[in-house]
# Entry
Amino acid sequence: MPGLLPENQRLFATQVVRELRDAGFEAYWAGGCVRDHLLGRRPKDYDVATSARPEQVRSVFGRRRTLAIGAAFGVITVLGPPRAGQIEIATFRADLDYSDGRHPDGVTFCNAEEDALRRDFTINGMFYDPIDERVIDYVDGQKDLQRGILRAIGSPQERFTEDKLRMLRAVRFTSTFGFQMDKETLAAVRRMAEQITIVSVERIAAEMRRMLTERGLVVAVWLLLETGLAKVILPEIVCEERPERIERTLSLLKRFDKPSFALALAALLREFVDARGAAGVCSRWKLSCSDSSRVEWLIGCGDVLRDAAEMPWSKLQSYMVDDGIEELLALAEAVAAEAGESIDFVEFCREKLRLPDEVLHPTPLLTGDDLIEHGLTPGPIFKRLLARTWQAQLDGEIETKQAALAIVDRMLQTELE
Ligand code: ATP
Ligand code: MG
# Structure
């Protein structure tokens, strides 16, 4: 499916507001897309808030163009024209009680102002009228956006009591936008950090992914430590008796600009845990296999590339052909630079990576089928034989299948003796 076009998304979001307006309802862009629009950032997606009830929204846009999956919460999804995505249209609503510390027990419909007040932070609490190009701001969001302040709407303590996930969102928005957290909001996160355990690990991991793959990752980690959230969600990096470790780590993280999640996590953890410890964090957060194995591999490799120039090619090649090589190089380069050591090995490796494919990824001279044809019965020894001949091939000791089979015969001979 072709990707979304930001211009199509924006036009569609404006069109949706116009159609609701023409049908006699109040309608605005709402929340994160307003914030992004005012910051001059491209919104990922657009949300529309309206006075129309879900069934009225469906009759304006027609059943065929709408999905009612979120109707119980007042949300109708409208499907857009090609490459314009879809838009969630939510009826102005207020949340009922939050008895589980995470989700409202239900919603009631209300006016725009009350809808603004249920939102988490002032910068996320604004509406925008894309037709008259007018901001509707009941929460002083514009002032905070201009001054770069992340502030809870209303009482921070109450807002975090309702939904603990907001504490992590506070850290993420503050760090990602390069803002300051308002003093009372910060104090409330500090007081309530231990309660973050109410939030599912999947949501915690999703927030961690978003904050660590953005530019403000150093501030994010610093805030997690500073607020006490780290003590609960990532105790591995809390090591009060060795403050130099975290200082080195923060300094290392400064060297990355929007790293992959696996790279960021490996850089964050490497001072504190070994590959097994990293695997523990990944499994606690239920990360995907590919993320977990990448993080484990990056930490397990340690400083290995530093000696690339002295390494037999058969050893170096196995790193060079790994899918994670770019992340490994980036990590090794940052670690070496941080320690004031030479980073010549990076260029050495890059040169290897530019080798033609048949040198970097040669076809093995010998395969299991060749061994069978040679009269051997498949078994555990195959792995050793093939590893040895592969190594000899990469290191240039042999160039033909015959030579490879000669090695096999010699190995079998010694085995028998
Ligand atoms: P981004 O999409 O970049 O994460 P966003 O602000 O758009 O940022 P969403 O999760 O898409 O975040 O939510 C859209 C809007 O819904 C927010 O801007 C905010 O107004 C409101 N909102 C989202 N999550 C919460 C929450 N946990 N508590 C209160 N309001 C929320
Ligand atoms: Mg959003």
Remarks:
- The chain has 22 helices and eleven strands.
